[in-house]
Amino acid sequence: MTELSKPAAGKKIKLLELDIVRALAILAVVLIHGTSSATVEPTEGSASQIMFYILNVGSSFAVPLFIMISGIVLFYSYDGRWNGRTALTFYRKRAVSLVIPYLIWAFFYYAFNQYINTKQFEMDWPAFWGKLGWAEWSYHSYFMLIIFQMYLLFPLFMTLVDRISWFRKWMIPLGLLIQEGFYVYRHWFSEGIPHSDRIAPTYMAYFLIGGAIGLYYPKVKAWVEKHKPLTAAAWLIAGSAYVSLFLLSRYKQIYAENTWYEVLWILYVTAAALFFMQIGRFLLSRFPRLSKPVMSIGICSFGIYLIHPAFLTLFTIMWKNPTTILMYDLYTFGRYAAVLGASWLVVYVYGKLAGLFKRKPAVQPGKAYASNKTVGM
After folding, report:
1. Hey, CA dihedral for 61, 64, 70, 71, is it positive or negative?
2. Between the chain's N and C termini, which has fewer beta carbons within 10 Å?
3. HSE-up of 325 (CA within 13 Å, CB side)?
């Protein structure tokens, strides 16, 4: 093996900055859902609608970023200690942390949505089971299906990393080849692949780019620290270009070939990961008090993701749309803050109560990485 291909020696430290990256990603997830109606309800072409449309499209890095974070954490934490027993433990932990919540929340939203729409509840088991296969029990549930597929594939990738020296060096090209090859096939050679938005190949580049970052995290961290302006500029430029394509197509009827959207999306998400890691380390070192509530949002991100659509539905029912543009804008931002705050509070309190029955050793900066569990997303 070359120097680059050797596993990092010693114990792994907890990557606290990733909790801040998770926080920024979940803020974007809630913003996407909280502004979706605002992209169509105000007068077409109004300043209000354009503003919310920019916020909505600009937040589209969120789900791929969570997939990338999962790749970072998994490959970082298991590198150098992977074996058959570890693989079995990995599957057991993921069955508890993902499959069980998937079933519980699928039932919750099946009952919740039915009652909200009809004011009654009737259990139709065939209909319920039919929604599980493709995660069709809620508009946000597809993410869990994608992560489930990544968890199934991770042991294969980790075994290849552990046993084939060149594989870790080629993870990023391989991820791009799988994702873009799948894109080319469904875009030019197929009449459409059902549920392609929730199939693993559609997001493979994000997962394996994250994996490569995790395998070489100290080196990536050093590179980002050395090129801070570059990562910030890359995120701003890629994001501005990506959003501009949508603005031009919607408001000017100027259309770019779909490949440009795909390429810019990958650049935007990757730049976001590197730039947000930089933001995380900056907050931790310069503003430790401010970083604590931000990290709390990141730690609670999986729970916030699961519960926030319910709060969004309830608040939308409770608060009717105002009639003036200014009040509508305030209403939309206020609803967003209320949904985020309520979701975080419920998850935070639940975590505290659960902690009363299960004591865990605290993880401090610089200490050994105590848990290899990916925090939800």
Report:
1. negative
2. N
3. 12
Q: Which two tokens stand for residue 194?
A: 């059902």
DSSP for 30-78, written as a single string: HHHHHHTGGGTSSPTT-HHHHHHHHHHHHTTTHHHHHHHHHHHHHHHHH
Angle between helices 204-215 and 171-184 (to 10 degrees): 180
Residue 367 carries which DSSP code?
S
Which helix (H) or strand (E) segment is 191 a member of? none
| Structural tokens at position 44 | 């077409």
Within 10 angstroms of residue 254's Cβ, the number of other Cβ atoms is 11
Calpha distance 238→358 (Å, rounded): 44
Q: Per-residue pLDDT tens for 301-359? A: 999 999 999 999 999 999 888 888 999 999 999 999 999 999 999 999 999 998 776 65
* Cβ atoms of 25 and 143 closer than 8 Å: no
> How far is the C-alpha of 163 from the C-alpha of 243, rounded, in Å?
41
Q: Cα separation of 144 and 361, whole Å?
A: 28
Q: Which of 240, 238, 232, 235 is nearest to 54 (CA)?
A: 240
The separation between CA 253 and the C-alpha centre of its own chain, rounded to angstroms, equals 31
The length of the chain in residues reads 377
Residues 205, 209, 210, CA angle at the centre, nearest 5°? 120
Reported as a single tens digit per residue, the pLDDT across 83-113 is 888 999 999 888 888 999 999 999 999 999 9
In sequence order, what are the beta bridge partners of 13?
368
Q: How far apart are CA 296 and CA 23, in angstroms?
A: 8
Residue 368 bridge partners (DSSP): 13
Exposed / middle / buried, residue 26 (Cβ in 10 Å: 0-12, 13-18, 19+): buried
C-beta contacts of 188-192 below 8 A and 24+ residues apart: none
Residue with tokens 């913003």: 31
